[in-house]
Design a protein that fits this description.
It is built from 12 helices and 20 strands. It is of the alpha+beta class and 459 residues long. It folds into 3 domains: 197 residues, no CATH class; 92 residues, PDZ domain (Pdz3 Domain); 74 residues, Pdz3 Domain, CATH 2.30.42.10. A hairpin with a 2-residue loop joins strand 9 and strand 10. The longest helix is centred in the N-terminal third of the chain and has 35 residues. The protein is elongated and about 90 Å long. It starts with a helix and ends with a strand.
Length: 459
């Protein structure tokens, strides 16, 4: 019990540290650029809301807010931001004017520092490696009976080459995955190009969407298939039935009782049917088939489907170069934004995560094996996301400051303070509302993590 509490606290500290690191580096970029260009800096804040800690050093108030949602550097000469940053200590009129170029440099510094941190973290991932399943392929391992994929003729063992006319490299993760291409499709039918028996065939499937409660994120399309996860032996318990039968770490179970195994779940029914009897396994070892015979333990009330001394699942460490990691992260973000703005897309703003959702995901990552490596790789994506989304030309965001500075440069005179205050305040309130909107769904995910599955609707 004590160990579990300490583990929970340690993971929480890891999450808070890495999440705050991303914010601090971004805001530090603004801070250093403002100092370099001679702008007045009043506050350096991590998180918003009423400060729970603050200290003034050399005229700058450093503070930690009470709302865990980003941070800011209060630079009165850049733009009026009282709605988020609080009242300014000095009137804007009393401060010297700032050139548009200086405003652009200060606004762009945050995203530049975030991209820099992303590249540094990508270099670390390149050195230490990123865990990746050995079986991260596009081969189908499961097709739900009666589901859209089954009705269209997709089968376990098919290798998916393209979905909706777009090539795929993974099954579940990334925007070049089977899952994303299904979600991103917009037609009544989704064409699948698969390789079967050495030939390419195209099958058009329907799709289904679970019916969710009003407080849950809107459901996304699915065709009810799963990836092939070949049972790879990661660890064999010494002295166990599997050890006595000759199983070794690194073996791949390819058949049981002469029945091909495409997915880990394929083993369960056969093993349950032969409890208390001998079972013949075929494994692939160093590229060659090996036959093993094992007496399966008898069934008990609490017996697991597979309980004979094997720990399943193998991962390898891959070392993608930093440029590829940053490029792939940027590509994913552009695709997600593209899906968001497409009128026919099922992807909506509700499917994005706010600070609560991101911190929850970090917690889940740190709980897993090699969690720190996965968190490092995930942080590359988050940093690139922080940089690019902040460059959107929306007032309050860094891109909005750049846009306003460009307008000022074209007009050759500053924009009216009243106009700026009205625009910035309205957009600040909209941003706060949007963050609360995302937080609503983030909390809904936490509440629903133990809810029963939803009903499904088909097309």
């Amino acid at each position: 019990m004590v160990f579990d509490v300490l583990k929970f606290l340690f993971i929480c500290l890891e999450v808070v540290f890495i999440f705050n690191l991303l914010i601090v580096v971004h805001e530090w970029g603004h801070f250093l650029a403002a100092r370099w260009r001679g702008l007045k800096v009043e506050k350096f804040a991590i998180w918003f809301g009423k400060p729970i800690w603050s200290k003034t050093i050399n005229g700058v108030e450093y503070r930690l807010g009470s709302i865990p949602a980003g941070g800011f550097v209060a630079i009165p000469q850049l733009a009026p931001m009282e709605a988020l940053e609080g009242e300014s200590a000095e009137s804007r009129e009393s401060l010297p004017p700032v050139k548009p170029l200086d405003k652009i440099i200060v606004a762009a510094a945050g995203p530049i520092f975030s991209l820099g941190l992303a590249f540094v973290m990508a270099c670390l991932v390149w050195v230490v490696g990123k865990p990746q399943s050995e079986f991260d392929t596009t081969v189908i391992g499961y097709v739900r009976e009666g589901g859209p994929a089954a009705e269209a003729g997709l089968r376990a063992g098919d290798r998916i080459v393209a979905v909706d006319g777009k090539p795929v490299k993974h099954f579940l993760t990334g925007t070049d995955s089977v899952k994303w291409r299904i979600v991103r499709s917009e037609g009544e039918k989704i064409p699948f190009t698969v390789e079967r028996n050495g030939q390419l065939i195209t099958l058009d499937t329907g799709w289904t969407k679970p019916e969710t409660s009003s407080w849950r994120r809107p459901a996304l399309r699915e065709v009810q298939i799963g990836p092939r996860v070949v049972p790879g032996v990661g660890f064999v318990v010494r002295g166990s039935l599997a050890d006595k039968a000759g199983f070794q770490a690194g073996d791949l179970v390819t058949a049981i009782q002469g029945t091909p195994v495409f997915n880990l779940s394929d083993l369960g029914p056969v093993i349950d049917a032969r409890r208390g009897q001998e079972a013949e396994f075929t494994v692939e070892r160093n590229g060659s088939p090996v036959s093993l015979s094992m007496l399966l333990p008898p069934a008990t009330e609490d017996a697991a489907p597979i309980d004979f001394g094997i720990e399943w699942g193998r991962t390898t460490l891959v070392h993608p170069n930093p440029f590829t990691q940053v490029r792939d992260a940027a590509t994913s973000i552009f695709r997600m934004v593209g899906a968001l703005v497409s009128p026919a897309s099922d992807v909506k703003a509700a499917h994005f995560s706010g600070p609560v959702g991101i911190m929850r995901l970090y917690y889940q990552i740190f709980e897993s094996d090699n969690g720190w490596r996965i968190a490092l790789a995930f942080s590359v994506l988050i940093n690139v996301n922080l940089a690019l989304l902040n460059l959107l030309p929306f007032p309050v965001l860094d891109g909005g400051h750049i846009t306003l500075a460009l307008i000022e440069a074209v007009r050759r005179k500053p924009i009216s303070i009243r106009v700026l205050e009205a625009v910035q305040t309205a957009c600040a309130l909209a941003l706060v509302g949007f963050m609360l909107y995302l937080t609503f769904y983030d909390v809904g995910d936490i509440v629903a993590s133990g809810s029963p599955p939803a009903v499904e609707s088909k097309k």
